[in-house]
Amino acid sequence: MKCRQPGCTGTIVDGYCDVCGMPGNATTMPVGRGVPGRKPSSTASGPCRQPGCRGQIADGYCDTCGMPPESALAPTVSSVTRASVQLGSTALGSARATSFGARPARRVPSTGRLRMGRIGQGLTVVPPAPAVDPAKAVMSNPQLAEDKRICPACGARVGRSRDDTAGRSDGFCPKCGAVFSFSPKLVAGDLVAGQYEVVGPLAHGGMGWIYLARDRNVSDRWVVLKGLLNTGDADALRATISEQQFLATVEHPLIVEIYNFVTHENNAYIVMEYVGGRSLKQLLKQRMEAAGGNYDPLPVDQALAFLIEILPAFSYLHDLGLLYCDFKPDNVIQVGDSLKLIDLGGVRRITDDESPIYGTVGYQAPEVAGAGATVASDIFTIGRTLMVLCAEVPEYQGDYEFSTPPAEQLPAFAQYDSLYRLLLKCCARDPGDRFDSAEDLRLQMLGVLREVVSARTGGTAGTSAASPLFEAPTVSSDRFDWRQLPQLRSDPSDPMADWLDSLTLTDPVERLGDLMRPPTVTTGVLLARCLAALETTNQRVLDVNVHTLLTEDPWEWRAVWMAGLGALLRGDNATALSSFNAVYGQLPGELAPKLALAVACELAGQPDVAESLYRICAATDANYVAPAGFGLARIRASRGDLTGALGALELIPQTSRGYLESQKLTVEHLVALGKDAAHLGEALKVLQHARLDERSQLGYETAICERALTLADKGAVKLGTVSFTEGSLRDRLEAGYRRLAQLSADPNERAELVDRANAIRVWSLL
Questions:
Q1: From CA 611, how far away is CA 76, in angstroms rounded?
Q2: Helix boundaries (H) for 87-126
Q3: Do residues 64 and 399 lie in contact, with contact meaning Cβ atoms separated by under 8 Å?
Q4: Which CATH fold topology does 278-429 show?
Q5: Mean pLDDT of 5-33
Q6: Do the Cβ atoms of 213 and 225 come closer than 8 Å?
Q7: 3-state secondary structure of 349
Q8: Is the pLDDT of residue 545 over 60?
Q9: Can you tell me whether residue 538 is helix, strand or coil?
Q10: Range scoring the smallest mean pLDDT among 67-71, 205-209, 445-449
Q11: Once rounded to an integer, what is the mean pLDDT over residues 592-596?
Q12: DSSP states of 37-52 as a string?
């Protein structure tokens, strides 16, 4: 009978495949998740324990995700917190700049090497937005709510009701005397600039009413008129239009198109493309109404997908030297399966220090009022939008206007540590601590989305995604070494990149010598020195170059990464933990810092945090399954959890270089932690299909027999389908020791094995 496992060419013998070792009836179990000889209890039933899975356990496996009831990724320890954000972290960025002397300027590297193609929501499903009939979107009774009537000059409350008298829509501010008007300036039928026939108001924005109109000169197409200035000063009108003309050059599929700039009765208007969909704010309102008036945030994966999709629009604007300034859920429109960034009235040039800055309380960065708008302040608004989309924060325009609530107050952020780290970096108080660019943010947000989707679906990752910053890990065994962690990718934009590539010396000592004599010392050269110093265990050179890197740029996380590797090398686990935790905070969407932090936590006595991080790595990327599986197995075996340790090793697929090692460890754990002969029988079954060399095979078989011999004083021991007496076990051990002695090239080891064979043999009087 042929094995039914996908891609396997083996044959079923005695109920198991002679190649992959899977049971003959295992048709639904994912490849790489079964250990030969181990089958879940067929009597297990009830709901699946995989995170996000709603299946039921039937015949020992979930009928939805196919995982066994004792999920290897499910928590098996106490309920204490595993959030890495609570760990100590190396000072980095503004904290280092202010703590270690004079603050140098932030060195922002080119992000060209990180640029990738635009990615939509291919990782998750976002329901499309229904189309909206433009005529039905017009307000029948256009009035601005009284609680939104603010004096445009001084910000005082105006137009409010008093006693039984309704508030006025037009009048004078009692505080500063400025004129205010909240009545629509255009009515149905008005012809603006002899071309745009007004249909009616659509909404009221930060700079006045927004109107729907038809363009009589271009096939009656729908357009939107948005007020620019509310004044009777003709010179100011001309200046405003001149200042805003650059918006007509903005052309991007994710940004609403600007058609024209016109004046009408001493008011200026932008003529824009009509986008007939729903804004993210309207989507939140619809969800709130459906929830009976209770705030119902978006699922995290959908919120991330929306922002990942719109972020290329910010990259485009920033590349043009423009800032958006007023990003919020109101200004993203979903049209079917696509998005549009609308309301360009607040867009300004990065070099503009004079024009008024438009923003919204709760979204605008704290430094804007004093220092003006920057790319960093745009990043802040994106982070605040993410927070509002994912969680209810009643005080986000009050006590938390410029700060982030603790994770425990935000359920979605408490559930996903990486998501909270992303929010903290987006909304850091110091602008220098935020992401360098919208593209950097998009890449990290994409990584967080992969984690969120993986956690929702459960199981282990079957695919991988290349990182622009790190190589894939090379772990192929349980014996950890710093070299097995992901290595930094070289930076092709470094001025010395070609020279560094020309260094082909394999001996790290010789390579370090050449690195000490470069034509020019750059960041790439200093990092290469750090790596060579690690390879030669030269702690002094490592420390000097790490210090130089962080002195030149306190935000250089790659220097802290190197410092963490050096700490691991010398056994300083606390410093390694702090270093990798700092890098994780800078790169919340990358798995490499999580894997390194998991190792450091494991070594530093933080097994709960380590296990949580290992599970994230195993579930998110196929390249990380083996190192994460070994880590989980180490932690669980250390506390005597045989089932958990074996389940962790089951994660490692047969295609992994670590698969053979996982089979060896399975045998070792079954022998060391097994409670009875059944576990020893399982170990023998694994050995039958492990395809080990003769010496390794005999070594494990003798270990099993030695353990079985301790149980033989109670009678015959059944290992699998064969029963052994004490005498037969001694015979088998004697033969094994003698054969191992023949295979050994070490005279001392050979003599020891012969002595053990003589000692174990069954003696007789003949």
A1: 9
A2: 94-99
A3: no
A4: Transferase(Phosphotransferase); domain 1 (1.10.510)
A5: 52
A6: yes
A7: strand
A8: yes
A9: coil
A10: 67-71
A11: 97
A12: T----TT--EE--STT
Confirm if 316 and 199 have CB atoms less than 8 A apart: no
Buried b / exposed e across 435-452, counting CB within 10 Å, b at 16+? Answer: bbbbbbbbbbbbbbbbbb
Positive or negative: CA dihedral 271, 267, 154, 163: negative
Which of the residues 326, 417, 433, 478 is marked catalytic? 326
Is CATH 1.25.40.10 correct for 659-766? yes
78-93+466-657 and 659-766: identical CATH topology: yes
pTM given for the model: 0.82
Share of the chain above pLDDT 90, in %: 57
Amino acid code (one letter) for 716: A
Q: Provide CB contacts within 8 A for 161, sequence distance 6+.
A: 146, 167
Find tokens 């790439």 and name the residue: 524
The two tokens of residue 457 are 């679906």
How far is CA 610 from each of CA 82, 588, 590, rounded to the nearest angstrom?
8, 16, 16
* 428 φ/ψ angles, rounded to the nearest 5 degrees: -60, 145
CA-CA distance, 192 to 462, in Å (whole number)?
58
Cα 683 to chain centroid distance, Å, stands at 38
CATH topology of domain 78-93+466-657: 1.25.40
Chain-wide mean pLDDT for the chain?
85
Q: Are 69 and 49 in contact (CB under 8 A)?
A: yes
Tokens of 552: 């030149």
Q: What is 134-250+257-273's CATH number, 2.40.50.140, 3.40.50.11930, 2.40.37.10, 3.30.200.20?
A: 3.30.200.20
Q: Check whether 15 has a pLDDT greater than 70.
A: no
> What are the residue ranges spanned by the domains of the chain?
1-71, 78-93+466-657, 134-250+257-273, 278-429, 659-766
**Catalytic-residue membership of 326:** yes
State the virtual CA torsion across 131, 135, 136, 138 in degrees, nearest 10: 120
Burial 229-243 (b: 16+ CB within 10 A, else e): bbeeeeeebeebbee
